[in-house]
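Forgive a beginner's question, but would it be possible to get any protein sequence you like and the tokens describing how it folds?
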Amino acid sequence: MTGLILKLAPHERVLINGAVIENGERRSRFCIVTPNANILRLRDAIHPEQARTPVSRVCYIAQLVLSGDVEVGDAEPQLMRGIEQLSQVLTDHDSRSLLTRASQAVVDGEFYPAMRHLRALLPREARLMAATGR
């Protein structure tokens, strides 16, 4: 069987096509076989008021696609523009690699990996902002 394998910790919540689902007492594993289902682990979610930095704003756009709140066609240009803007600032090798992978994931229509690669930039962004006193 192919599809997205979703492993949930006890009491972990996930948003699937607009419905919040909470796991029971034990770890579970699900295989999501429906293509293009909107799936977001709530532990990965960024709340709107937390999207205050450039990286978190771009992550939030990807999250809106995953939650089904924004259409792919509307979000894709915003994501690509945001990734391009981030690549002008985050020029180290590791950041560039993450941005390249995020960009490719958006092109491939894979928004969860795109969000995951972008989220990996959040600690770097925090260090840069702390170093500049912001």
About this structure: The helical segments are 54-67, 72-89, 93-107, 111-119, 122-131. The two ends are 48 Å apart (CA to CA). The chain has a mean pLDDT of 91. The chain has two domains: 4-43, 46-131.
